[in-house]
Amino acid sequence: MTSIILLSIFGILNLFMGFMRSNKVLLPGAMLLLLAVFGANLADWNVVHAPYFNNMLVVDNYTVAFTGIVVLTTIVLLPFSRSYVVAGETNLAEYYALLLFSLVGAVMMIGYNHLIMLFVGIEILSISMYVLAGSSKRDSRSNEAALKYFLMGAFATGILLFGIALLYGATGTFVLSDLAGAVAAPENASLQPMLYIGILMMIIGIGFKVSAAPFHFWTPDVYEGTPTFFTAFMSTVVKTAGFAAFLKLLAVALPGAQGFWLPTIQAMCALTLLLGNVGAAVQTSTKRMLAYSSVSHAGYLLIGLVASRGNLTGDAASGIFFYSLAYSIATIAAFGVLKLVADHRQRDDYAALNGLGKTNPLLAFSMTVAMLSLAGIPLTGGFFGKFFLLAAAAGQGYIGLVVFAVIMSMVGLYYYLRPLIAMYLRPAEEGATPVPVDGIQTATLALLALLSIVLGIVPGFLSGIL
Amino acid sequence: MLTAVLLFLPLAAALLLLFIKGAAARALALGASLLEFGLAVYAAFAFKATGTVAFNLNYAWISSAGINFHLGLDGLSLLLVLLTTFLVPLILLSAFKHKYDNPSTFYALVLFMQTGLLGVFMSLDAFLFYFFWEVALIPIYFLAGAWGGERRVAVTLKFFLYTVVGSLLMLAGFVYLYLQTGPAAGSLAQHSSELSAFYSLKLSAAEQSWLFWLIFAAFAVKMPIFPFHTWQPDTYTEAPAPATMLLSGIMLKMGIYGTMRWLLPVLPLGVSQWGFLVVILSVIGIIYGAIIAIRQRDLKRLIAYSSLSHVGLMAAGVFSLTQIGLQGVVIQMLAHGVNVVGMFFVADAIERRTGTRYIPDLGGLTRRTPILSVCFLVMLLSTVALPLTGGFVGEFLLLAGVYQYNAWVGAVAGLTIIFSAVYLLRMFQRVMLGPDSAFSETITDLTGSELLILVPLIALVFWLGLFPNSFLHISEPAVINLLSLVGR
Amino acid sequence: MRPKPVGATFALQRLLVLLRSNLTAMLLVLPAANYQPSDYLPILIQFGLALAFVAFAMIVSHLVGPKRNSTVKDASFECGIESVGNARTPISVKYFLTAIVFVLFDVEVIFMYPWAVNFRALGNDGFIAMILFMFFLLAGFAYIIKKGILRWNEA
């Protein structure tokens, strides 16, 4: 709860900080504010709070853990907005404020205990993202991304809201814990069609937000058009919060309807893995590849939902937490490097990375760790993320799904290696100069690589916390 | 504790190397690897060959899942640790001969690789084993990819995909086995990935049947066994010489070691079901590698195919499941490691002097290079398995084992000696003897520092050939243990 | 533009409004607890009727109405004056901003009504909450003014 209050106040504070003469203080200011939020959030760990607002919002370890991920992700993302500071972007304060506001939405999605709270959270998050997707006003691709994202997102939200309404109609409650009883209650049996359609619509709505197939089609275009800085935010924070909300919905509210949603999620999972990985393999732009790769990671996270079996604690939930963290860290590093390189070399295909190992060893190293982590190679956090999720699913007997996921991660190897090949095995263009990187970005990239490796070597300290 | 030092010393040196340049980097790399070898020798002397695991080191790694950081050495591991620590300084020395870009990074990757290899040989926990298995892959990918020849991009990609696909299958197999285990004593986790927990599993024959291929996939690709070998000649040829030596001298042994430690005792029924098929595949590999080697005109490629042929015999020996055959594998692993590194080093020495490794361009090199010729011949004859050399002991025991297993297979496998004599001696004749070539007058003989590399190798070749017992008695209890587990 | 048969349409629309209010009344008097799917039948009928009327009106006016085309008739016009230029010209974003700000402050009043009605019941907590709400709202207002959104003459 403190994190929501602080984020809201800091967001407004940021808006007014924009009226200062120089925008040099904005970046360190925003980072400090977020660090304060991160600390305040961690202080809630293992502290029991009564539910807030008439049982609409709960702060428990689950909330703290996932809030920690989204706040941390945003902190390490911020340094890559340096180019805006340098270019004297006039709306920088608004960008930061919108990021903070969307974090409020993310925290609400994570901590909700009431379907209306979920809806409000998703809307706060999404509306900020619609604006940020179009923040590059003169770029027609950014405009296209914003419009597409807005139109389709609005549609998905509508469907989600309809689903909530149907669920309410069938059960008479919005509160998650009451829903669990009402879904299973025999006196509601006659309303099952309504209930099932409601659940399906909610799955569609949230599935859209986390870009799970077959509701992923917007992802590549939107990710490509959105300025890279905000793409990184979209593919990490939005996804993490979305999955935290998804898991909570299925595990707390709908375990009684498991027979209905489990096959649905399984089918979505297989389809997402297939389309994400195969789609990524045929891309020529690094950014589009990362977009498809984020779809494929939604697939791996869906395995966690399948394996959770209506449990908010235990292997699968811990696995989703660990995976989200490892994925966020690696994705921020990948997009961060890509942004720096693309800003300097004015292109974002694989060839843009050519010879980076020579010109910028640190950028190349950071990208390497990120790619290996996303591919799930040991020594990186991504490996243990996949391992925990797949082991949890195998432990529940979903052998077929696990085998399919393993095969798909082999496909993943192919496209994650391509940036590495470009960076180390291909020479840079004639007269290529090193990409300029300032101190704080260097430190952040080193930190991200270190975090990935630490998660890959001693995963024990975060593996079973939920 | 010793095992931990053995494991982390090269890693620490590798990390330091990232910040050091020039001569200091060489000194540090070499010093660290020699110190490492010293430690391994100390371990060998402190080791009592009783069949138990010595130098145990066991910490909870991921306690919630029952996964431990468990290292230890038995006779089998110890010999491979010795081989690794013995070869790495020599490989580093040979790397000093080249002018690589970013040499410090190159040495760091070699040492990093050493950590991975030692981890594979020492880990007694399935997921730790898998972890190091992949850790060993990353540096060799960059070594071969960044410093390799012209076709390196495609070749290393193929190599990487082959091996990773294989190891992912192995991981899937391990996860399945892990989920069948019960909790370890005193652990809160539901399962355990300890080696001993895997050994005490009782699985049905049907389960073992498909698990066998999941796990064997990784080992078969790494060795490699026909028909999983297609990455091997390309990668050996395109990789820079030190990386080739790492690949052929040590990394290949990972596959054989893995089969002996993680496949035979864990899935005995699967092994008895599929063993014969694997032996047949191995024998096909022997003949296939040899025939292709005869036709090769590239020096490195020829040695690569020769290695393929010899590995086939080792694989057949592993699946013969006889004590004599497995002991043969142990000795041959050491002998082959020494031989193939020596051969690749000589080939590299010739290439550095002449700028080519195309056999028809070479010839008549002996006149100016008596020492080089002698060294080359020793390495070559050991590979051909001439008595007095390490290769002879290994191949003899192997053939005896395979013959016990099946006389017909043994007879065909015996062809490996004849074939290797044909292609290796023919190669020697065309490269070193034969009509003079453009290089006959200009080529220079081995320098002192090059001899520094070859002399220890040659010494070991003869040591293995004359006193094989000094190694065999270390591995004997481990091999007997292994066979008793297979026979359970 | 062709003149439409206004009289008939108007009568039908009146009829429909009547019907709709009656149906709504019928639905409202039903006891809340035991709805049956068949209770929704009137809604379905109304829906069908609405659709059918649209189709009917369109088809009949198409069939019955006289068709006489001429260039003058087909030309587009606005308020009886001939149109000039394209309708899709850029409009100053100021209009849009002002409209949005208006909507914002308009909707905010909706919040005040229930609060005012339940003022006593909500007590001190409600008062504090409303103060906070007003503070945020005014902060936004201050931001808008500071940003110069309401200054019309500046770029």
From TrEMBL, chain A:
Topology of this chain in the membrane: Multi-pass membrane protein
Residues spanning the membrane: 63-80, 92-110, 116-134, 146-168, 195-217, 229-254, 260-282, 289-308, 320-341, 362-385, 397-417, 445-465
UniProt keyword annotation of Cell membrane present: yes
Occurrences of domain NADH:quinone oxidoreductase/Mrp antiporter transmembrane (ranges): 113-410
UniProt main location, coarse: membrane
The reaction(s) this protein catalyses: a quinone + NADH + 5 H(+)(in) = a quinol + NAD(+) + 4 H(+)(out)
Keyword set includes Disulfide bond: no
EC number: 7.1.1.-
InterPro entries in UniProt: NADH-Q_OxRdtase_suN/2, ND/Mrp_TM
UniProt subcellular location: Cell membrane; Endomembrane system; Membrane
A Pfam family this chain is assigned to: Proton_antipo_M
Class in the EC hierarchy, top level: translocase
UniProt KW keywords: Cell membrane, Membrane, NAD, Quinone, Translocase, Transmembrane, Transmembrane helix, Transport
Entry's family note: Belongs to the complex I subunit 2 family.
Subunit structure: NDH-1 is composed of 14 different subunits. Subunits NuoA, H, J, K, L, M, N constitute the membrane sector of the complex.
Protein name (Swiss-Prot/TrEMBL): NADH-quinone oxidoreductase subunit N
Species the sequence originates in: Hymenobacter jeongseonensis
Species classification: Bacteria, Pseudomonadati, Bacteroidota, Cytophagia, Cytophagales
TrEMBL record, chain B:
UniProt keyword Transmembrane present: yes
Membrane-topology descriptor: Multi-pass membrane protein
Organism: Hymenobacter jeongseonensis
This protein's record includes keyword Nucleus: no
PANTHER family: NADH-UBIQUINONE OXIDOREDUCTASE CHAIN 4
Cellular compartments annotated: Endomembrane system; Membrane
Domain NADH:quinone oxidoreductase/Mrp antiporter transmembrane: 124-416
Main localization (coarse): membrane
Transmembrane segments: 75-93, 105-124, 130-147, 159-179, 210-231, 276-295, 302-324, 330-350, 371-393, 405-425, 446-466
Annotated protein name in UniProt: NADH-quinone oxidoreductase subunit M
Keyword annotations of the record: Membrane, NAD, Translocase, Transmembrane, Transmembrane helix
Pfam families given in the database record: Oxidored_q5_N, Proton_antipo_M
Residues of the NADH:ubiquinone oxidoreductase chain 4 N-terminal domain: 57-117
Family to which the UniProt record says this protein belongs: Belongs to the complex I subunit 4 family.
